[in-house]
Write a structure and sequence with these properties.
Elements: E1 2-8, E2 14-20, E3 29-33, H1 41-52, E4 56-60, H2 76-90, H3 98-112, E5 116-121, H4 123-134, E6 140-144, H5 152-155, E7 164-168, H6 176-185, E8 190-194, H7 210-228
Parallel strand pairs: 3-4, 3-5, 5-6, 7-8
Antiparallel strand pairs: 1-2, 2-4
Length: about 230
């Protein structure tokens, strides 16, 4: 359904992105932010899913500044490799990858002619939260089990747009008490938890949990319908 395109960030860097277009006129757009495994087949499938719902979907390659063309699976080795790239991106001088996400938002708005939402998974969930708090042109954000979102530094941020956050109750990387602290500090954010593990949205990894993924998707689609039109 989709094709690879090139975005251009404000300082001129060209960044690949996967773009999936709906049949007919888009009713808005959704930027999809990757896990630590790159814009792989799962992330492309997520983008295709939003396109099937009538949205223009854009998934920028968030690792491009440190390693072009990353597309990993879900083995322990892949996880270690992906974590290394994530660490390298996080160490970039500001604004780092955030300017590439801004380029994706701007592109999505221009091509769709509508409002833009953002959704991200794992590390992409953290980037989604940061985007909701720091970037322009968004109307809604839905981070999934964003590693780091519940740390003190991230809890201190203030979102500029409505946020719906999804967390897993059995997530060994994001303790439930930290999710509760996030919810207390961010009462305006809709927070949902699921009886599942980290990565429950992904059907390619062992922690995938179809009932939780389906419920979270239904909630996110309703949220986007409300805020994106």
């Amino acid at each position: 359904m989709g094709t690879m395109i090139e975005l251009q960030s404000a300082e001129g860097t060209r960044v690949p992105a996967y773009e999936a277009r709906p049949a007919g006129t888009p009713k808005g757009a959704v930027v999809v932010l990757q896990e630590i495994f790159g814009v792989n087949s799962h992330i492309r499938a997520v983008a295709d899913g939003y396109a099937a719902e009538g949205y223009l979907a854009v998934a920028p390659a968030a690792f491009h500044r440190v390693k072009p063309g990353v597309e990993l699976g879900y083995t322990e080795a892949d996880m270690g490799e992906g974590f290394g790239y994530k660490t390298a991106v996080e160490a970039l001088p500001a604004p780092g990858v955030m300017q590439d996400i801004q380029a994706a938002i701007d592109h999505a708005a221009k091509v769709s002619g509508g409002k833009v939402g953002i959704v991200g998974y794992c590390w992409g969930g953290l980037l989604t939260w940061r985007a909701a708090c720091t970037l322009t042109g968004l109307s809604a954000a839905a981070p999934y089990y964003g590693g780091g979102v519940t740390t003190e530094a991230e809890i201190a941020r203030q979102p500029r747009v409505p946020v719906m956050a999804h967390f897993a109750e059995e997530d060994k990387w994001i303790p439930l008490d930290s999710v509760e602290a996030f919810q207390r500090a961010q009462p305006q954010v809709q927070v949902f938890t699921y009886a599942a593990h980290h990565g429950f949205n992904c059907d390619q990894r062992g922690s995938g949990h179809a009932p939780s993924a389906q419920l979270a998707r239904e909630r996110t689609l309703a949220f986007f319908k409300q805020h994106l039109g």
